[in-house]
Amino acid sequence: MRSPGSRALRIAVLAATGLLAIAPAKAADLPLYGKASPVPVIGYDWIGVYAGINGGGGFGHTCWSIIRALGVAVDPAVGEGCHNAGGGTVGGQIGYRWQKARWVFGIEGQGNWADFTGSNVSLALAPQTNRTRIDAFGLFTGQMGYAVNGLLIYGKAGTGVARARYETFVAASPLVFNSVERTRWGYTLGIGMEWGFAENWSVGGEYNHVFLGHHTADFATVPANALSRSDRIGQDIDMALIRVNYRWGGPVVVKY
Fold this sequence. Notes:
By secondary structure, the chain is mainly beta. It has a single domain (41-255), classed as Porin, CATH 2.40.160.20. Helices cover 10% and strands 71% of the residues. An eight-stranded antiparallel β-barrel has the order 2-3-4-5-6-7-8-9. A two-stranded antiparallel ribbon has the order 1-10. The longest helix has 26 residues, at 4-29. The radius of gyration is 37 Å and the shape is elongated. Residues 11-16 and 18-28 have low confidence and may be disordered.
């Protein structure tokens, strides 16, 4: 007959053996480490009012054709040739953008001083020279773009306006004997790319084409002030700009 002590010892040994058999199976079900915290993804927020400066260069392509001379209609029109009025420009812009997912929409107004000048000797009235000067322009546009965090690629469309002066003179003389100044309205298309290099700062490049169409300029001879001729002038403007903007809006968004 076994003693109570040996029976208790046997039970204890059996219990310990069972625990050792179960432990590896339970351990296999446990993860090797705790669940990792989600890694934050930084998303640049383009929402807000912005303002900035721009600078670059461009040219206005201008073609002149005589449609009236000394009060008599000229039909068909007699072409005087074309020239590019090129130079530099500097100005500023202000706008507002809002964002839905990766799509960015905006409105913007831009005004620039310009020094675009060009000329050609008239093909019909040589040695007379025709000259175009563009000293200011403005753009009023809507924008639609696609953002990948701090990179924004966009297109723009809207209204364009330019102030131009048309002059005629003879190269051998400094006297401008005909001149007309016009404010020209048309429409504009453009594309651009912008990079948010800091929380509220961005820099980018932009190309715009302004369609100003055709209009009639009536030239009067100085000093007699008599009607000399009327020209049909067609004009477009192209420009490439570097822009820097500061935005008042939400901070960089942290997404999990």
